Every structure is written in C-alpha cells, then in structure tokens.
Amino acid sequence: MTNRAATIMVMVVVGCYYLWAVRAGGPGFEWGRDLGGFYDYLGRALAHGRLYLPIEPAPELLALPNPWDPAVGEAYKVYDLALYKRRYYLYHGAGPAVVLFTPWRLLTRHDLPENFAVFLFSFGGFLFSCAALLRLLEMAGVRLGAVFTAALLLALGLCQGVPYLLNRIFVYEVAIAGGYFCIAGALYFLTLAIASGNQYQFAASGLMFGLAVACRPNLVFAAIVGLAASAVHLGRSRRIRQIIPFLASLCVVGLAIAGYNYARFDNPLEFGLNYLLGGGNNQNRVELAARFLPPGLYFFLASAPDFSPVFPWVRLVSRYPYGSPNFSFPPGYFIEPMAGVLCIAPFIAAAFWMPSRNALKSTVRMLLWTALACSLAVLLSIAWTGFSTQRYEVDFLPELALVALANFAFHIHRSRGLKRHALGATLAVLLTYSAIVNLALGIAGPYDGILKAHPQTYLRLVNWFSPITRFRPLLNPYVSVAFTAEATSQPDDFRDPLVTLGSRSYRHFVYLEHRDTGLRIVSRSPDSTLMHDLLGSRNRPMDINVTYSPDSRDLTTMLDGQTILVHHLTALLTAPAEVTIGENRIDSARTAGRFTGWIRTREKTVRPN
Questions:
Q1: CA geometry: angle at 266 spanning 262 and 269, to 5°?
Q2: Which one of 151, 182, 250, 528 is most buried, counting C-beta atoms within 10 A?
Q3: What is the pLDDT of residues 159-215, one digit of tens each?
Q4: Which CATH architecture has domain 474-607?
Q5: What's the pLDDT tens digit per position in 49-82?
Q6: Helix (H) or strand (E) segment spanning residue 479
Q7: CA distances for 533 relative to 519, 520, 529, 537, 565, angstroms
Q8: Which long-range CB contacts under 8 A does 316-320 form with residues at least 24 apart?
Q9: Are 213 and 223 in contact (CB under 8 A)?
Q10: 492 band by pLDDT with thresholds 50, 70 and 90
C-alpha cells in the first residue's frame, strides 16, 4: 500500500466514523424544513438582515426586575440565550452561522441540521490537520511507510477529543467544532505561507484565525500567538512585509466581531455573557481569577477517568481538586465530569519533545512551536475562567496532538536499530490506548446519547465488545439481591451504601442515611428519589431485599419482609458485576466507599429478561 492510498483510506474511515457518531447519539439528519437549533435561529436572523433571534421573550420574563436572576424558572426563559433590550441574542460566536448556516439558509430557504454542521466542521478540521502534518513532515524530509502514516493520521482523527464532542450536538458543540475547523485551517495555511511566502496563504491564515475567534472568543489567544510568532520569524528573515496580508485579514474579522457586538450590546467587547440566561453556578459571570488556574490545569490535564471492565470501559467522573477531598473548589467554580488530556491522550507529552535545532529546519521548528504555543495559550485562558468541562478540550488538544505526532515522527525517522523499534512500539501502545479511551468516551458521551437515542445500536456494540458474561451490560434485567445489614453509629447525613446497580444514565443507588432522629433508607435514580424513615433502634440487624422487575420496571425495596419503597424506573442498564452489595461505585463525592457496619449477602441474582 502506498502512502497516498493509506491517507485516503484513513480519511474515508474517519469520515464514516464521524458521520455515524453525529447520528448515533441523536436524531438523524433532518432536511428540507425549519429546525429548532440556536444556530439555525441565528442563520435565519442573519439571512433576513437581523442580529436578534426570531424568538419572542415571554412577557412574564420581560416584566421581571431582574430577568437574568438564575432563580427565574424555566417556564419563562430560554436557557443559554442572552437577553438585552427585550431581544434574544446568541452569546456563542457567530462564526458558524456566517460560514455555514446563513449561506445554507439563503441557498435552500431551510435550516441546516446542526449535527451535520458539526460533522462538516469536525471532518474539515481533521483534513486540515492531516494536511498540516504531512506538509511539516515533507518540509523536514521525513519519509514514512504506509502503516506509520496511517497510524499518525488515525490518531489525528480519533485521539483529540472530537469523538466525545460528536455524541451530543447542541449549540456548544457547534461553536467548538467551528473553532477546531478554523484553527486547524489557520495552522495549515500558515505552514504553507511560511515556507512559500505567498501573500494569499498568509491572508488565508489570518482569516481563519479571525473566524476561529468569531466561533470561540477564547481562541483570540491562539490568533495573537500566530500573529506574534509569524512576525518574529519573518522579521528575523527580513520578510516582515509579508505579515501585512495576515494582519489585514485578521483585523477585518476582528473589526467585524467588534461591530457585531456593538450593534447587539452597545459594547464592542461584550459577547453577551453578562446577559446570559442560565441556571446558576455563576454562568453569566466574566471573571479571570488566579484562584481558578491551579484546579483548572489539574482538571484539564491530569484528572483521571474511571476505568471498568464493563463496556464502554471508560467513564467521566466528578472529582475534588487534585483528586482529594482535602481540597475544596474555589468560590464560583463550575465543573462537569471530565478527564484530563494526559489521561485520554498521553502521547501528547511528546509535544514538548522538540528535536534540536541541528536536527530540524528552523522553519519547521518555528511552526511546531507556534502550534504548541497556540494550544498552551488557549489552555491557560480556559483554565483561568473557572469553567471546566470535557468538550472544552477540543479547543487545544488537537494542536497538542499535531505537534506530538510530528515530534514522534521526527525522532523515529532519525533513530536506528533498537531505539527505532522501541520508539515505534511506544508510540503504537500510546496511540492504541488513546484511541480506545477516546472512542469509549465517544460512545458514552456526556449523557449516554447513543444508549438513549438508539438502545438497540448500543446493545449491539455491547455484544460485540463484551465476551465475558459477568461484564456484559443488560438492559432491564431481572435483579434480586438479599442481605442482612447492621449499621454502626455515624454522624448526621452520613451515607452508607447498600446496593448499587449500573453506572451510567440508567444507574440506581440504594443507601442508608444516618440522621439525628434515626436511620433512613433512600432509593435514588438520576431523575427521582424515594425515602423511608426507619422506626426503632438503629443498632439492630435488618433483612433487606431489593428486586427489579423488567415487566413493571419497578425497583422494590423490602425491609424485614415488608415493602417500604416501590421506585418506578425509566429503565435499568447494568452488568452483573455492577450490581454490588455494601459497595459504592456511583457517588464517591458524598457516600462512603463501603458499608461501615456489618453486612452479609444472602442472595444475588442478575439475569436477562
């Protein structure tokens, strides 16, 4: 197989996977009609020469003295839109609408499905990254075999956080995918321009950096780094005039963004975050604080996911800062379950393993350092905001992956014998691990989109990749557990685990809550909670039986032969290994890891319906 054939094959494989992923986690592509996506609204608005969205705020909302108060109920407001002067605006960048949604609306008079837009942006960003990597290797005189080339390109498509992004498509994912596309394009055109000096390529790079800011304002730091690095390099080589097209196109987009903001919010620097209608957690604040930076770097770099033998093997979890309950979150910090980039793509550590000046052309080194500095600048800017969520990693991880893979290729190309084989084997292991973790997170997503939207597809994947029965998840199995437990005295609000079932969106948890007035048995699912207060002495043996009936979908808890709780569940997905007695694998932040008293299992049955 030739390198060209390998490249084409990888592009087809990655493209097919992206196309499958954006549909598997939700509805298919809906063509030829008006849709309800926020970027569809903005596309319609711009197509009609307006900046406000075609949604009328509720009169009850407008009548409130402070409609931005997080306590305002869902019935009156539209979450994640900005309200200003009695109009709704999109606080996310207008770049995706300008590039895709508005032109599509003008051409077809219909909306563009947001999931298809994310596919186009993500696949386009992947193609730009591949082209940039291949161009850098060519400039450095590195020649690789077809298998090695395919491995590097697959890593650019699967090991950079994008699979997770594709699982759930909403306004956030559209903006992030648009930013990824633009930054990848900016670096590709910069790679061409620095080598050739072509003014149109410099202009294209500046334009793409500017559009990246129009998608994600925090990417302005990547644009600043790109401009500064290009100016320094061109100045040293006495070609500083070549930066003018780059600067001009970047400034044109910057002025357009400032004008867009001023026309909406009477402030060129206001993107709408101060007027955001959110649900709490200070989501409409604008604050860059030093107290956010250390935990932010921990969560984005080093926070580990949970690994399990149960498909899909990897899941995101919420952790304390630095993984220890001895540290608390800074005031105003916002976090969702996440895993750091060094844990999901450890090969990126090689981004700092830059070959020496004697081993690599100065132009190639400059481009690698520029991409690395762009990534680090964006990482720092996000960590400084006090907002930590998994999808933000796509803002900087693809560039780290590009530099790391290029560095690995340079070192392997220059090495010989045992060292070459060792480096190749190390890279193969790291890329295999990274691909598995990223694909697993892509299947799970933030809210188990594939499982909820297409359960049969999910179960087919389960059967393909779960050869061991004990670790094979079952949808709505029959479950019956029986045990005897005796609690020890614990502080008020202390939680002792009794039974856990499953680990994802359809999980369930039965636990014992210690109260000053006695004990309470709690049955909790992701969307509802039931509880029963126990009478009498707390220091006595309790015979407890928990059963789940797949026909009624009721989880029944019995105490000493009497039914005390009947909890109707939407569904239950659990492997036999995930049904535990006296162990807690669900709520590590608030519940003990093991039952602190005495517990003895009498029965545990888990079988398919």
A1: 55
A2: 182
A3: 999 999 999 999 999 999 999 999 999 999 999 999 999 999 999 999 999 999 999
A4: Sandwich (2.60)
A5: 999 999 999 999 999 999 988 888 778 889 889 9
A6: strand 478-486
A7: 6, 4, 13, 12, 11
A8: 316/390, 316/441, 316/444, 316/446, 317/588, 318/589, 320/589
A9: yes
A10: confident
Residue with token string 């900016």: 186
- What pLDDT band is residue 395 in, cutting at 50, 70 and 90? very high
pLDDT at 285 over 80: no
Tokens of 100: 């895709």
The beta-carbon contacts of 336-339 under 8 Å, at least 24 apart in sequence, are 336/388, 336/389, 336/390, 336/446, 337/390, 337/446, 338/299, 338/300, 338/303, 338/388, 338/389, 338/390, 338/393, 339/303, 339/304, 339/305, 339/314, 339/390, 339/437, 339/441
Average pLDDT over residues 564-591: 88
Report the alpha-carbon distance of residue 130 to residue 18 in Å, rounded: 15
How far out from the chain centre does Cα 273 lie? 21
| Domain locations along the chain | 1-29+114-165+288-466, 34-112+170-286, 474-607
> Does position 110 have pLDDT exceeding 90, yes or no?
yes
Say if residue 517 is exposed, middle or buried (CB neighbours under 10 Å; 0-12, 13-18, 19+).
exposed
Residue 277 near residue 82, CB atoms below 8 Å:
yes
| Residue 542 scores a pLDDT above 70 | yes
Beta-carbon contacts of 107 under 8 Å, excluding residues fewer than 6 positions away, are none
Mapping DSSP onto H, E and C, the string for 90-121 reads CCCCCHHHHHHHHHHHHHHCCCCCHHHHHHHH
Over range 417-437, report the average pLDDT.
96
Q: Which residues contact 252 (CB under 8 A, 6 or more apart)?
A: 207, 210
pLDDT for residue 504 is more than 80: no
Q: Is the pLDDT of residue 589 over 70?
A: no
Burial 205-232 (b: 16+ CB within 10 A, else e): bbbbbbbbbbbbbbbbbbbbbbbebbee
CA separation (Å) from 556 to 3, 34, 369?
60, 45, 60
Structure tokens at 317: 């979890």
Distance of CA 74 to the CA centre of its chain: 25
As given in the structure block, the two tokens for residue 505 are: 């969106």
- Distance from the Cα of residue 287 to its chain's centroid: 22
User: Under DSSP, is residue 155 helix (H, G, I), strand (E, B) or coil?
Assistant: helix
Residue 378 corresponds to which tokens in the numbers above?
């964006």
For residue 324, the 8-state DSSP code is -
**CB hemisphere CA count around 380 (13 angstroms):** 11
pLDDT digits (tens, 9 = 90+) for 259-284: 999 999 999 999 998 899 876 656 67
**97 closest CA partner among 144, 130, 134, 48:** 48
Take residue 194 and report the two structure tokens written for it: 């620095």
pLDDT tens-place string over residues 88-107: 999 999 999 999 999 999 99
- Which pLDDT value is given to residue 146? 93
- Alpha-carbon span 115 to 121, nearest angstrom: 10
Q: How far is CA 575 from CA 145, 404, 450, 503, in A?
A: 42, 37, 17, 9
pLDDT of residue 421: 94
How many Å is the Cα radius of gyration of the chain? 27
Written as one string, the DSSP assignment of 206-263 is HHHHHHHHHH-GGGHHHHHHHHHHHHHHHHHTT-GGGHHHHHHHHHHHHHHHHHHHHH
Average pLDDT of the chain to the nearest whole number: 93
Query: Per-residue pLDDT for 416 more than 70?
Result: yes
